[in-house]
Amino acid sequence: MPKRFVVTASEFTDVPRCAAGFELAEALTAAARQLHATGTPDNTLNTAVELAVRLVPGAEHADISEIQRGSRLRTLAWTDEAVRFAGEPRHGGHRGPHPDWENLWTTPVVRIEDSAADGGGNPLSDLGLRSALSLRLRADRRRLTVLTAYAREPRAFDEDATRIGRLFTAHVSLALDSATVREQLTEAMRTRDLIGQATGILMERLDIDAAGAFDSLVKASQRENVKLRDLARRVVDSNSGSQGRGVGER
Questions:
Q1: For the residues of 121-137, what is the DSSP string, one character each?
Q2: Structural contact between residues 240 and 198, judged by C-beta atoms closer than 8 angstroms
Q3: How confident is the prediction along the chain (250 residues), in pLDDT tens digits per residue?
Q4: Of 49, 88, 46, 44, the residue nearest 67 (C-alpha)
Q5: How far apart are CA 87 and CA 107, in angstroms?
Q6: With the C-alpha atoms ordered 51, 56, 61, 67, is the resulting torsion angle positive or negative?
Q7: 67, 144 in Cβ contact below 8 A?
Q8: Which of 207, 237, 235 has its CA nearest to residue 220?
Q9: Cβ-count burial of 249 within 10 angstroms (0-12 exposed, 13-18 middle, 19+ buried)?
């Protein structure tokens, strides 16, 4: 489950406020370097919301949320408390996205010109946020990941802001995919090492070969309905004197 993040004051002084032409290319290149330097998907999200405020013209705040089918929403990263719950209901019940965000299932961008234009009652206007630019980062049949920039003035995001926002989110998506793959590979390596240690312990404990030890571990995992990784950790911990039941025990 993704963690929640609060971003503090800007640490990206080398990323200029966005302009046009060559300066835009430089700004996006610098942002891409920052994004790809993050070590985990969580840090990528954390970095992306801060960079969004510096890059997207008109942006004062930003957050990243995950929207699930059935209108459930979790805010994953935010720049400040002003937008921490911008897309979420303020009084009880299940958290759900702003109604306009439903359009992001079929279009990559949703722009709110003035949240107070309908006479009030809009959750964004209640927070003093008049404009919003929501950009789809990821989408599948079950969930959306959305980056949203906010402003306190109406009609803060024009076509240039939308274009820059889409270019920026393309970089965020690539960096997020890269960080996810790195994290998965790191976890796979850790799991492989852990299972290897457990197999070696069982070889010695049960006086069997490597194939037999691994088979014993797999069967115990199925019998106890425990992930192989977790069972391997139990074996290693028990061999180190920690509390836990070994595979060979009933």
A1: --HHHHTT--EEEEEEE
A2: no
A3: 333 333 333 344 444 455 556 788 899 999 999 999 988 999 999 999 999 999 999 999 999 999 887 767 889 999 998 888 776 655 444 445 566 778 888 899 999 999 888 666 677 888 889 999 999 998 888 888 999 999 999 999 999 999 999 999 999 999 999 998 888 888 888 889 999 999 999 999 999 999 999 999 888 888 888 888 889 999 999 888 644 444 544 3
A4: 88
A5: 18
A6: negative
A7: yes
A8: 235
A9: exposed
- Sheet strand arrangement including 109-112: 5-6, 72-78, 61-68, 143-151, 131-139, 109-112
219-240 residues labelled b (16+ CB within 10 A) or e (exposed): ebbeeeeeebbebbbbbbebbe
Q: What's the whole-model pTM score?
A: 0.71
Q: Count Cβ neighbours within 10 Å for each residue of 160-183 and write b for 16 or more, e otherwise.
A: ebbebbebbbebbbebbeebeeee
